[in-house]
Amino acid sequence: MGAIAANVPVAYPHDGEARDKGSGVVLADRYRHPQLGMEGLRMLQEHATWPDGGYSTEAAVLNLQERIATGRFRVASTCNEFFEEYRQYHRDKLGRLVSANDDVLSAVFKTTMMLRAAMPGDGDAP
């Protein structure tokens, strides 16, 4: 994992600041430090937020819808997991977002939140 994208900054959700129940280690630190059992990813210093510091899922959904509508976010037609999760996202009778089995979509939300931390690539992506 680390060798393919060793210099790619990795965004993570706010619950990555929680401690692992078994070891007491902050979850994000397990990914940062290879001695804690992971690959030593280049994790961002803080969890994913919007520029104002919030991490609203509602804002993420609206942002993604706007990006899709304006052609600033496109997904390969072969990415079935994304489309399945996107189709299942809906609101309940009270207008609240219902999210279940949304790992890919959640990762997209964190990525769009942290676009300000993105860097130009060097063209060596697989």
Description:
It is a single chain. By secondary structure, this protein is mostly helical. It has two domains: 35 residues, no CATH class; 57 residues, no CATH class. It contains four helices and four strands. A two-stranded parallel sheet has the order 1-2. Strands 3-4 form a two-stranded antiparallel ribbon. β3 and β4 form a beta hairpin. α2 packs across α4. The chain is globular and about 45 Å long. The relative contact order is 0.16. The model has no long low-confidence stretch (mean pLDDT 85).
Count up the domains. 2
The proportion of residues forming helix, as a percent range, comes to: 25-40%
Apparent shape:
globular
> Which strand order do you get reading across the main beta sheet?
1-2
The rounded distance between the terminal residues' Cα atoms is 12 Å
Number of strands: 4
Number of helices: 4
| Regions with little confidence, pLDDT below 50 for 5+ residues | none
Structural class given helices, strands, pairing? mainly alpha
SSE succession:
EHEHHEEH
Secondary structure elements and pairings:
Elements: E1 9-10, H1 27-32, E2 42-43, H2 57-69, H3 80-88, E3 90-91, E4 97-98, H4 103-113
Parallel strand pairs: 1-2
Antiparallel strand pairs: 3-4
Helix pairs in contact: 2-4
